[in-house]
Design brief:
Blueprint: H1 2-12, H2 17-39, H3 47-74, E1 79-81, E2 92-94, H4 95-120
Antiparallel strand pairs: 1-2
Helix pairs in contact: 2-3, 2-4, 3-4
Length: 121
Amino acid sequence: MKQMLLDMMVAMMPFMMPVVWLGYASVAIGALLVVGGLFMPGLAQSRGLALLAGRIAAGVGLFFIACQLAGMVLGATPAINFGDSTKFEFNLVPFWQIGAAFLLSGIVIGYFSSRQTLRHA
C-alpha cells in the first residue's frame, strides 16, 4: 500500500507546477486589487474579487502543506524543481515553503481587502 501511494505521488509531481501557477496568479491579482484599491476608489468596489483571490492563494498554500505532510508520512521529501533539468540545474524547493508563502500571502491579501471594506464603507 505504501509503495502504491509513493508511486502515485511520484506520478503526480509533474502536475504540481500548474497549481503553483494558480497560486502565483491569485496572489498577483489579489495584491494588484488591494494596492490599486488604495489609490483608485473605483477598484475598491472589487474587494470581493481580492478576497476571493486571497482565499484561493490560502487554499493553494494549505494544499501544499498537506501534500508535504502526506509525503513526510510516506517517508519522502516532496519538492518542486525550479531549475532547468535539461541543464542539470536542480533548485528544489520543499512543498512546505511554497505552501507557507501562499498561505501567508493569502492571509495578508484577505486582511487588507477586508480593511478596505471597512474604510470605504
